[in-house]
Amino acid sequence: MTEHTPLDAAHAAMIADEGNDAARLRFYERLADSELFLLLTEEPSGENISPEVFEVQDQAFVLVFDREERLADFVGKTAPYAALSGRIVAGLLAQQGMGLGLNLEVAPSSILIPPQAVAWLDETLGNAPDEAEARITEVTPPVGMPENLLSGLDAKLATAAGLAHSAYLVGVIYENGVRSHLLAFVDAVPGAEGALAKAVSEALTFSGIEAGALDVSFIRASDQKAAVFAKWGLQFELPVPEEAQEIGRVAPGTDPSKPPILR
User: Fold this and answer.
1) Neighbours of 260 (CB within 10 A)
2) How far is Cα 61 from Cα 252, in angstroms, rounded to an integer?
3) Residue 145 pLDDT greater than 60, yes or no
4) What does the pLDDT look like over 43-62, one tens digit per residue?
5) Is 51 left (phi over 0), alpha (psi -120 to 50) or beta?
6) Residue ranges of domains in the chain, CATH in brackets
């Protein structure tokens, strides 16, 4: 297969410089954000899935692929699978103390990820940002933001299609004199604030930036602040989701609030 996927690129960057923590973090971020195809022993039964499990040095692993074609190439025939986000897979495996084999034998990103690394990824993804309130007294252009954080935010917000119209990154000074940077989401979908704040927190974590280096707020396009942020800020456009197609059966893992059950 000739297609070079985002996971292939992130894996190549990681192995090219094994001492580069930023590249390693970026790979795990891409893994968490990717749709993965989990090889099963049989077709899903309701919310229950039965993954194919194999043992390596007394550790249990399941097999995932970032393309359906790669799964088919590995198996050599049609096989049952569940399409799940990497973060859901990490959560399921961490509960069971399992590792995962990614794209084994069929792609340049072929790698065995041990249970300890899967548990670390699940724990990292579970970290929630703190909430705080402070009044802004001055807005400035963003200055001195690390390039890897900017590219990380751009990639992360690309996965938040439909959750907000756009976002502005600005410098701010609060009434207590503290200087910071702020990412203001415009016209966020009601109820999506927590997911967006967590996405920003993950972008910080996987960029190797300390938590608290970037604040988050939510405004409407009609707010006076929106015009100020548009004047001074760096704008991020969030992608518009494709129109949903009606499907007859909801596949396991489609609803993030109801992850499938391993059996």
Assistant:
1) 22
2) 20
3) yes
4) 887 778 899 999 988 899 99
5) beta
6) 6-126 (3.40.1350.90), 136-237 (3.30.429)
